[in-house]
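anyone else get weird line breaks when pasting these?? whatever heres mine. first is seq + tokens for prot A
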Amino acid sequence: MTTNKAVPSDIEIAQQSSMEPITAIAGGIGLSENDLEHYGKYKAKISFEAIDRVKTSQEGKLILVTSINPTPAGEGKSTVTVGLGDALRQLGKNAMIAMREPSLGPVMGVKGGATGGGFAQVLPMEDINLHFTGDIHAITTANNALSAIIDNHIHQGNELKIDPRRLIWKRVMDINDRALRNIIIGLGGPVQGVPREEGFDITVASEIMAVLCLSTDLEDLKRRLSLMVIGYTYDREPVSVGELQVEGALTLLLKDALKPNLVQTIEQTPALVHGGPFANIAHGCNSAMATKTALKLADYVVTEAGFGADLGAEKFLNIKTRAIKKHPDAVVIVATIRALKMHGGQPKQDLKNEHLPALENGLENLKKHIETVQSFNLPHVVAINRFSTDSQAEIELLQNWCDMQQTPYGLTEVWEKGGSGGQDLAREVLKAVDSGNHFKPLYSLNDSLTDKIKNIATNVYGAKNIVLSSKAEKQLEQFEKFGWGKMPVCMAKTQYSLSDDAALLGRPTDFTIHIREVYPKIGAGFIVALAGNVMTMPGLPKKPAALNMNVSPDGKATGLF
């Protein structure tokens, strides 16, 4: 990657790129115009009929892209995902990409989009990063419709005897807004409803997002929605959506959102961009339907899991693999020298300067993520995502370290060169895929919830132990009693550190993971454990990215990365 100011921005590169009609992209993977539901010339959803038709096709190989713990220096995981897909196509492979949809909150906040960057992007970049095909809006509507139905049920006599003090279902919106984390609703007298405490999560943290992304068809979606727990009765028994009898209405609101979205990269590689759960507060993977459909349409599918391997990859391998009954054939771990130096103690403002000791120290973070992937018995390749400020000595140090670790790697320049800059990586990935594997999940579903949490904390994060708050202890005991103990655990933790303290970079040691609370996500099929002070509704930074965004008189977006 280059930081030369003369190089156009991501959005300028995207706007200067030409796209093929989506019908042409579909034709290249064996789909006809009748298999598509068009959202303009360059976007389409794949129909349920087409998805059903290809279910009997042979399944391709799955390549999972993850990374070291993210830093403000940048890792480029989405960019490498796109570039790797393009590179495989250049090598003559029938490859596709399966990615998540960006959330407007981070787009307008600080993180940026999720369509890659430079010459390794998914198009139309502007549409995907903004409203796209309306999937996230549909999830917001379904979530808030359920909230309205819950409050109306209580107002109209509360037949189910729901305790308003023990409701766990929150309203959502797709924007970072810390002011909505804790609010009071129902004020203004008896006709306005029952006053109670409430709060907002960001839409991508909604259980409905997780449910949509793990459902295999409409009936499975409806079943999962009915199982969602919204709160407890005065007798402290769980109340489900099925008891409210509204799973059919919610499914109706979500029926089109369940269909995967077909788009293309700059190099016309087909891409399914669908679903967008956060990896620090949800399971962080694109939809099961998109991944499974891509595997039936292509010989190689490149997908990604959010944030570092301690979050997205762990959840992919312990949660999503069980849902889709397919595990990755190889894992790519993305690292940049800049980010590794930051993990090694070099300040962000000095990262352009060579600093071999910081790089050497930061390699411990990469080493831990490699160990995590190895613990699942999966082959891996390190993608060294190159920046123009990387010195030759730094590159050689990292390459020599990989050789000493017997870790295959590929020097990657897809931001600047597109697929041609990822061919070395692609060749190494193909070798890894062909090497075979003996995948095994980290834990058995028969383990207790507490043991699962401890297993993840000690083996994936490197913690010495876990500490449960008294509230979390009681909740876990209660969940086991309700029969929820055989579900996987979805850890909600800061993405910036292996620990639950965002300030501890590198590979911290002698730390404890603190579990303050757990939530049942029975429709999604997992239990969420909140570690440290992780938030389910992010706030905006002091200078949000939105300050740089605008639109020209002819409707062209500016400042969008």
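and prot B, same format (seq, then tokens)
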Amino acid sequence: MRGKPLLAAVVGAALTVLLGVAGTGAALADVFFGDTFDDGDASGWTKTGGSWSVVTDGSPAYRQASTGASARTQAGELTWTDYTVRARVKPIAFATTARSAGITARSTSLSSYYALVLTGGGAAQLQRVSNGTVTVLGTAAVGVSSGTWYTLALRVTGSTLAGSVDGVQVVGATDPTFSSGRIGLVTSYASASFDDVAVETPGPGPDPTGTTPPTTPPDPGNCRVAGAPAGFASVNAWGQNGTTGGTGGATVAVDTAVELLAAIARPEPLTICVSGTITLPAGMYDVASDKSIVGVGATAGISGGGFNIGLPVSAATTPPADAVHNVIIQNLSFRNAADDSINVQMFSHHVWLDHNDLAQGYDGLIDVKRGSSYVTVSWNHTHHHTKNMLLGHDDGNAAQDTGRLMVSYHHNWFDRTPQRNPRVRFGEPVHVYSNYYVYTTDTGVACQNNAGCVVEGNYFEDVEEPVTNTYAGPAGRCVARNNVFAGESGAAVCSGTVREPSAYYAYTLDDPNAVKAIVTAGAGVGRG
């Protein structure tokens, strides 16, 4: 992230942030520190031992490369008491099966802390380290493979400690030794990469996993697409008249993974009614054209896996006749995706993602890339996640993306999502309007690599860089107008000209001063 760890006023009040943010419920927590290392440095981290540097490991990450010593780095404040520290950790090499890599909490010094580590022997260990002496407080076999990313979370509340791996609590203990301290990253005679470090107020329970109430019986009679898309998903283009999803086809009810995966793969128009939380095996699952995937009520969701809307990746530079198109995903919660929660790729078009609640995925929550267009992302609530939304995945993908990636983002609640809100490459015009951003500790809209963004009528509250076309890499072009910059938000950094969205569709802006109230009352599930 840029500017490290947060806006100064937010850091000062971090541990008094209220849990009951409107629309989230008390079970969710607030991120008050984070680092993604996307700015290429690790300022603010104090280290000892090993060989630390920021490298590219899929995305920028903080790597400790030596297997010849114990190595530790820490950040934050000694006064931090109750919190959850979370990070992605990829062990690269273990000197022996007893060696380890992981995260620390309540570090009173570089040699005294609690730690959750992965060992070369395939275990997760909860440790107390006092002046360098390690005491194992809990251990669990989880299976650990070098070269694989894992999401670790260590929660410390009072004397209660809980450690999670990939969203599942595996170890716990009670220990009163350390009552406050910094967070950190640690390796013991192992090399590892670290990314997406976040610290959040703990919330009740071992880890804010977004547990959904018990499954209710499927009821297709209560399943319908609410409303119609605005923005680019409404445009007639590429042989498709707007976005209608499964209209005209059958309606089916699903409440198991087997039923859901069979339904999204069917070739004909279909409305798929999802009841309760469906846990998918880790992976991305292809959605065929002409589908409406709709949650029944306010408790429907997907956990563990994600949806891929698009053909397999290729080097094609023109949209194929069989590109996936005409897909609606509405009123679903997404949690703990092993990759992206929703990925739109390979010239897919006419996709409407509306009134969903997305959090705690592994990679992106909503990514649109590889020449896709005519997409609307509306009325979604995204939270508890760092790398939120990409539009265009790589600076070198101009051949597929130039002249495409036309996407509208409106009435979304970007709730403490530090970056990629969205991060844009090549797309033009990209229309970002009437959204509410709160406590964004890096960037709101980052418009890069010759993209053209119109950012208007949004409400930015405590957003470090609300709009920028100079974030990282080649510059883009952006127009920012009629936005509200509240609290300790920075200013828009924009230049250049952009094609107007009004050349493609008609739209009406809300009063930007009313956008916060409108969006928090209407975004997310159960509100369509």
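btw re prot B: The longest helix spans residues 257-265. Helices lie at 8-12, 257-265, 398-401, 515-522.
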